[in-house]
Design brief:
One of its GO terms (cellular component) is membrane. The protein has 168 residues and is α+β, with helices and mostly antiparallel strands. The chain contains 6 helices and 4 strands, in the order ββαβααβααα.
């Protein structure tokens, strides 16, 4: 598995496209599951997206050379998962089926809402409890905006009876 700044891609190779990457319409590698693992890290999630953008650009360039159309991450990876902001990115790429470029735009806009103003200057309350660093209301607003932009109702269930291309 190759890992770079929060992006883990499980396949036989991430430096060059193999014949299975070009011919297979579903995954990078047809010998098993193709997993994309995204680390958390707040605003550093943007660097994760730029690394993934490079991987997808190389893959799609090779596909284009072979006369095939471009693919989105949800069409390449069987499983996409992440922690913290990596989980938000996983939902955007996997469940909302965004391209990496669409995700970068949405994530940049989300960062302005979520990470711009800290909810608390102190992480410890007067009674010794731990307080959140950022506002959960800002996070909720940012996620609602992404859903609205994609035409997904904020009341939509993310687990339904359909079989998505990619599991998140």
């Amino acid at each position: 598995m190759a890992t770079a700044s929060g992006v883990g891609v499980e396949s036989e190779t991430t430096t060059g496209a193999s014949q299975s990457q070009i011919n297979n319409d579903r995954t990078l590698d047809n010998t098993g599951y193709c997993l994309l693992s995204l680390d958390g890290g707040g605003v550093r999630g943007l660097s994760t997206l730029y690394i993934l953008q490079g991987i997808m650009s190389r893959l799609n360039y090779t596909r284009e050379e072979a006369g095939l159309g471009p693919k989105k991450p949800c069409e390449i990876f069987d499983l996409i998962g992440g922690t913290s902001t990596g989980g938000l990115i996983a939902i955007m790429l996997g469940r909302l089926e965004m391209t990496v470029e669409e995700c970068i735009v949405a994530y940049t806009r989300m960062m302005k809402y979520i990470f711009e103003k800290k909810a608390n200057h102190s992480l410890i309350s007067m009674l010794g409890g731990i307080k959140p660093r950022f506002s959960s209301m800002a996070l909720e607003h940012a996620i609602s905006q992404v859903l609205e932009d994609r035409g997904v109702p904020t009341t939509a269930k993310f687990r339904d009876d359909t079989s998505p291309r990619c599991k998140v």
